[in-house]
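so im writing up the methods section and need the TNFR-Cys domain-containing protein record in one place, dumping it here so i stop losing it
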Amino acid sequence: LGPAGGLLLSLAGAVLPPPALPSLLPALAVLGCNAQPTYRWKDAVTNEKLTCQQCPPGTFVAQHCTRARQTLCQPCPDLHYTQYWNYLEKCRYCNVICGEKQVEVQQCNSTHNRVCQCQEGYYSEMEFCIRHSECPPGSGVEKPGTPFENTQCRPCPRGFFSSSNSSTKPCQPHQDCEQQGKVTNVQGNQYHDTLCTSCRLGGTNSTQAPGDDDCEQAMIDFVAYQNIPIRKLKRLQQILERSPRKQALGTRAAVQEKFRTFLTQLKEGHYEVTKELLDALRAAKLHSIEEKVRERFLLD
Ligand SMILES: *[C@@H]1O[C@H](CO)[C@@H](O)[C@H](O)[C@H]1NC(C)=O
Ligand SMILES: *[C@@H]1O[C@H](CO)[C@@H](O)[C@H](O)[C@H]1NC(C)=O
Ligand SMILES: *[C@@H]1O[C@H](CO)[C@@H](O)[C@H](O)[C@H]1NC(C)=O
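--- predicted struct ---
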């Protein structure tokens, strides 16, 4: 099959009349919609020009028509196909091969080439399958990725947060502490949830003595999410660590999370976190925050 065959094949496909426009195309209507497509063929022996019938999809021309008989069509062999009415002398080979990160979504059969698609979690770009992007903390998934399109993210709007890298999770709404019969300890932002506590903060009727686990955690959360500059926050952690390590760089949200995890571990190691933290705040010259903590948690 030369390039001419391919051209003729696509022309044959284009000749199918659009059924919605019969009044605009009276000439085609006269030709008849039910007529089988034909092609012109010059008989090799007589040199006579004949009009042959084409072969339907799934078959090919085994023998061209002669003056005496119609075109002889035969089914395509295995792994070969013809998609349209045609007068090809050979079926086309199913030449699409599914690559790595692809799955076969349509098998090769006598009328269709094989069709591949990117596997779950990947989308196609310039013939490659690329993993769906994750939305970073502070933004959530607006539209999950498909085999054809990457994940679409959007920054979390007011009242919502996302604390993880995720290609599936949308922004989550902040929790409502009052609804749970608790009080708001830390207001949420786009990176973290609102944090609630049962520790009675700043009230004169303090039923739980500061030092209770819940109150200690509340104090840790309160300090970790204060608007402390990153450098000060790192200094604070260095003071609290016995053998200060070099601090990795990161966003404020990431440094805050690390600091909070660090303090929580200190607490679980049965440290006197409350006292240590107040001392460290003072050493780091974060006096206004030390003051806020004392006031809020009724510490003298
Ligand atoms: C070949 O596969 C296509 C797509 O899956 C389907 O529409 C068609 O009916 C199949 N043809 C045959 C002959 O099985
Ligand atoms: C998100 O991914 C970035 C880059 O891979 C990484 O540095 C960061 O620690 C991750 N954050 C979280 C919360 O997993
Ligand atoms: C504080 O507690 C006392 C007794 O425990 C009670 O009489 C008082 O009404 C409480 N005050 C407030 C503001 O809840």
